[in-house]
Specification:
The protein is an alpha/beta fold and 442 residues long. It is built from 17 helices and 14 strands. Helix 16 packs antiparallel against helix 17. This is Extracellular solute-binding protein.
């Protein structure tokens, strides 16, 4: 029976891996994980003796492969700071983690000492906790004094803490080329109608209004992630609570608006064959006036040197309700079978402190959620201008999913591609998700 139960647990974990990503907090990369010599840093600890007898210790840490381009430099500096503080703990930091590599590690029960997790954004961390893969940090005396309750909730499963707490906010915004907007007489739109009128004007002028990576499963979804709270936040709340349905007219209307953008050519002619690198190049090279992307990619657009602006998509009433999500760039867990839990905890203590967080801010320009982190520049402040923090549609659909019926996966792999190719209407999209959803029983 024990062997049977182990097999069941591993199959359950594998099934739940389909619910991953940051919808927020970054991209998903489907390439096999690989070690980056430039990303590996030696570090260590003079008082790290609890689990190692005071000798040298090596900690294996997996970084986010899909966001290596953004995270490699800040983690070099963070790991160097750790090395200076703990010279007897060697950090082998490799950008080796994506869905596939983590899946393999879970099945083989060969996790690294530390790896990044997404807290309560998906059900994945909860499943790993239930099956004994993560170390309970509740009694480990992590300093949580700088964090509020919602940040603690991100890392909490059944009243216990399982990862370093988030210190940055993720959302999706419209990045736009101020020079192109000014040339075409456009300003930041005050409502949805004004936004769409601007897109039409840009298209008539021969400019692609919005660069979209139609080929990339996650990146093509960012407009939906931005539109969902703006158009249908209350309906999503009701659906998640089981007091409403995904067939609500506001949800159907949101999906129809996304379809309309594709039908009217506002994503350009060849967006279905375009990957994210191509979409970003089209935007930074002046071929497209805007791109809808996450705050995690802010530094990419700043580095291009363009005259960059940012705004959240307004709804028809002019209210700016944005997808709310905490960044998982610095939220790491310790494997329950780590041979060096005390040393690993010291790494989490560094990630949870102001020094490492300021390093991350200085490199990436994320939106801080803690007052003692100084925003990198005025552009970061611009990212934080909105009226209300709303729901993440992927998280809502994840909450309405089971291993047998995955509503989140249905949206990503079925609904969004069909909307982009005009194969279904917004109403049909909502009906498909309603059929896939498993609502909480009252």
């Amino acid at each position: 029976m024990l062997r049977t139960r182990k097999l069941y647990v591993l199959l359950a974990i594998t099934a739940m891996l389909a619910l991953t990503l940051q919808a927020c907090g970054g991209k998903n990369d489907n390439n096999a994980g690989s070690s980056s010599p430039a990303a590996s840093t030696n570090s260590a600890n003079t008082d790290a003796g609890a689990s190692s007898g005071g000798g040298n210790v090596t900690l294996k840490v997996w970084g986010d492969l899909g966001n290596q381009a953004v995270l490699e430099e800040p983690f070099k500096k963070i790991n160097a700071a750790f090395a200076a503080k703990y010279p007897n703990i060697k950090i082998e930091y490799d950008f080796a983690q994506n869905d596939q590599s983590l899946n393999v590690a879970l099945q083989a029960n060969e996790l690294p000492d530390l790896f990044w997790v997404q807290g309560d954004k998906t059900s994945k961390m909860s499943e790993m906790v239930k099956n004994g893969f993560l170390l309970d940090l509740t009694s480990r005396n992590l300093d949580l004094s700088r964090y509020d309750d919602s940040q603690k909730t991100y890392c909490t499963i059944d009243g216990k803490i399982y990862c370093s707490l988030p210190s940055f906010f993720d959302t999706n915004v419209v990045y736009y080329n101020k020079d192109i907007y000014e040339k075409n007489g456009l300003t930041v739109p005050k409502n949805w109608d004004e936004f769409v009128q601007g897109l039409a004007k840009l298209k008539d002028a021969g400019v692609t209004p919005i660069a979209l990576a139609g080929k990339s499963e996650w990146d093509r979804a960012w407009p939906v992630f931005a539109l969902a709270p703006a158009f249908s936040n209350d309906a999503l709340k009701a659906a998640q609570a089981g007091t409403g349905k995904l067939t609500d007219p506001s949800i159907a209307g949101m999906f129809q608006s996304f379809r309309d953008l594709a039908e009217k050519g506002y994503f350009g002619k060849d967006f279905l064959a375009q990957d994210m690198a191509g979409a970003q190049f089209a935007f930074t090279n002046g071929k497209a006036a805007a791109i809808i992307d996450g705050t995690w990619d802010n530094s990419t657009y700043v580095a291009s040197g363009m005259n960059l602006g940012r705004f959240p998509i307004p709804n028809k009433d002019g209210k700016r309700i944005v997808q709310s999500s905490y960044s998982n760039f610095m939220t790491y867990a310790i494997a329950s079978k780590s041979q060096h839990p005390e040393e690993a905890l010291k790494y989490l203590e560094l990630l949870s402190g102001q020094e490492a967080q300021q390093i991350m801010e200085d490199f990436t320009g994320l939106v801080p959620t803690i007052k003692d982190i100084t925003p990198k520049d005025e552009g970061v402040k611009e990212l934080g201008v909105f009226d209300e923090a709303g729901l993440n549609i992927y998280s809502v659909l994840t909450a309405l999913s089971t291993t047998d019926s995955n509503a989140a996966d249905t949206m990503m792999k079925d609904v969004i591609p069909k909307l982009m190719t005009l194969a279904i209407t917004g109403e049909e999209a909502a009906a498909i998700l309603d059929k896939a959803a498993v609502y909480p029983s009252k």
